[in-house]
Inverse folding.
């Protein structure tokens, strides 16, 4: 856990240091009170870096909860279609109007919330939510949302197309302090709710019936987890676009290092997710400097081999 | 007292009305699809029947908070699996809302001889070993519960995968606990011979309906068990005890 924390902090420093202004000039300038260095950090780099960390933490937390709730190591926050619907909301708005970034965020949010609410209502009968049904419905929602996104791409102008594509690939370059505030509020809510979920999700490894059997109020836990996952996924998509992979790999890294108990797994996943996005963001800036790659691409490129290495190590044990 | 009163669950359980008493080991028997698991699921409180009432130690089951239920009854459904790796020692107390006393855990570990498995990853255990760990888990739950009154254990074919040594050790351990007066066990079994000898009473279900609840010898006199189970069953004295077993030489049709 301490090691994960240390990795996360160093990733934060590394990501902060990467950019057109070289790292030695930057840290030296900060030390000497150079206004240029302070401005670069305060308005450009710090919001970006914090957004990257916050989104990584949110997605990995949500992924860990989803994997436990669905008792499936392949689950991720996008499983029940919330991310894709948030994406559709934002893309529709970009393609059809010249709306501002905050409107775009709002659209993503409303869409995700609406879809989750609908799914929950449809999937709940006699006060019991059928998770298997939700999973299948999520596949349908994902398919519909992707076709919707495809259609809006087809209909959008050249300029909108560029924006949409950039956004679909996932990027922290549009970061603002407003986004940082929103994302960290969400992360705070998720982390604050963690103590209510730990025992329940531990018991959930045994299946829903056995969790009930040891005294978990299963319906309450399903509602709470799904609502928080939707909040996390919607916030991540609304601020940074479609960032894949963190939600899948972050929890795995945490589980391999810290075991299946949620008391450590959930905070561990947050730190792992933060480290992953920060490193990916740093790499995205360093590789093509002074340009930058979409961080979503970077994440899959970096996370894939890393995950493979973990799997190989696991097989040797 | 675990009372099931006039319970009907449409399409799953036609009718059940009986009372599981602390101190008794009751076998729930009946052909496949007779509603045995449905009955246990109802008694676990996870589902609600269409009509009737279930009372646990005098309180309506559906009014008890989940944790209060967990303190008074434990339920081991048929197939419980864990999707991630963890040491068996963690599994034994996984998700329990209270910290079980070390002495209780040690007693159950010794009874089921789990010591050599404790540090192993549950995913590498054999089916029977996993079943033994799961059984230990619910036994620890009832034995370590902070609730002082009678507690009940609902076992759904939980001994089926165990080897004979551990089946017998588990049954005798459960019986000892029952005799101490604080535990009542409802145990689904297809091993009629063993259930005949070990159980104080049988609850016989057929096609969703309760056919009778009585000591097995009494029940066997009142009801044609061969008819119910669709296979000739032999009943005779052997080694000074009444026994029941399926006949080997028979005519199929």
């Amino acid at each position: 856990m301490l090691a994960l924390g240390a990795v996360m902090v160093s990733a934060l420093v590394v990501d902060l240091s990467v950019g057109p202004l070289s790292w030695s000039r930057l840290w030296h300038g900060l030390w000497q009170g150079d206004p240029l260095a302070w401005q670069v950090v305060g308005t450009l780099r710090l919001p970006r870096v914090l957004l990257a960390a916050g989104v990584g933490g949110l997605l990995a937390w949500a992924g860990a909860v989803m994997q436990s709730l669905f008792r499936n190591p392949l689950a991720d926050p996008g499983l029940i279609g919330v991310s894709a619907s948030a994406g559709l909301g934002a893309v529709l708005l970009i393609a059809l109007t010249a709306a501002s970034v905050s409107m775009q965020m709002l659209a993503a949010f409303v869409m995700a919330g609406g879809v989750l609410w609908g799914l929950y209502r449809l999937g709940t009968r006699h006060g019991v939510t059928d998770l298997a049904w939700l999973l299948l419905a999520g596949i349908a929602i994902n398919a519909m949302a992707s076709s919707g996104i495809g259609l809006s791409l087809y209909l959008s102008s050249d300029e909108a197309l560029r924006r949409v594509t950039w956004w679909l690939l996932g990027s922290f370059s549009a970061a603002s302090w407003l986004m940082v505030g929103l994302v960290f509020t969400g992360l705070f809510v998720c982390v604050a709710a963690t103590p209510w979920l730990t025992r329940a999700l531990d018991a959930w490894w045994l299946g829903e019936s056995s969790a009930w059997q040891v005294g978990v109020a299963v319906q309450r836990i399903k509602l709470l987890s799904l609502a928080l996952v939707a909040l996390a996924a919607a916030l991540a998509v609304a601020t940074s676009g479609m960032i894949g992979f963190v939600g899948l790999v972050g929890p795995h890294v945490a589980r391999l290092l810290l075991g299946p108990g949620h008391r450590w797994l959930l905070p561990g996943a947050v730190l792992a997710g933060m480290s992953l996005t920060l490193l990916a963001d740093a790499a995205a800036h360093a590789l093509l400097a002074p340009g930058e790659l979409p961080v979503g691409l970077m994440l899959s490129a970096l996370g894939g081999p890393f995950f493979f290495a973990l799997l190989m190590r696991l097989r040797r044990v | 007292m675990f009372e099931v009163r006039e319970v009907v669950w449409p399409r799953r359980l036609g009718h059940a009305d009986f009372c599981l008493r602390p101190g008794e080991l009751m076998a729930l028997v009946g052909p496949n699809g007779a509603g045995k698991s449905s009955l246990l699921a109802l008694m676990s409180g996870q589902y609600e029947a269409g009509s009737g009432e279930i009372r646990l130690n005098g309180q309506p089951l559906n009014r008890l908070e989940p944790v209060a239920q967990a303190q008074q009854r434990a339920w081991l459904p048929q197939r419980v699996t864990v999707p991630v790796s963890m040491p068996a020692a963690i599994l034994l107390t996984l998700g329990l809302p209270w910290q079980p006393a070390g002495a209780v855990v040690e007693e159950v570990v010794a009874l089921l001889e789990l010591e050599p498995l404790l540090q192993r990853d549950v995913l590498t255990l054999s089916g029977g070993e996993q079943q033994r760990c799961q059984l230990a888990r619910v036994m620890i739950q009832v034995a370590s519960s902070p609730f002082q009154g009678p507690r009940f254990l609902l076992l759904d074919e939980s001994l089926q995968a165990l080897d004979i040594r551990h089946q017998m050790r588990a049954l005798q351990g459960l019986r000892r606990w029952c005799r101490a007066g604080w535990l009542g066990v409802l145990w689904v079994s297809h091993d009629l011979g063993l259930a005949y000898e070990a159980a104080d009473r049988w609850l016989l279900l057929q096609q969703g309906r309760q056919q009778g609840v009585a000591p097995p010898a009494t029940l066997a006199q009142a009801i044609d068990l061969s008819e119910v189970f669709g296979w000739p069953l032999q009943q005779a004295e052997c080694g000074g005890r009444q026994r029941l077993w399926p006949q080997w030489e028979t005519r199929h049709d």
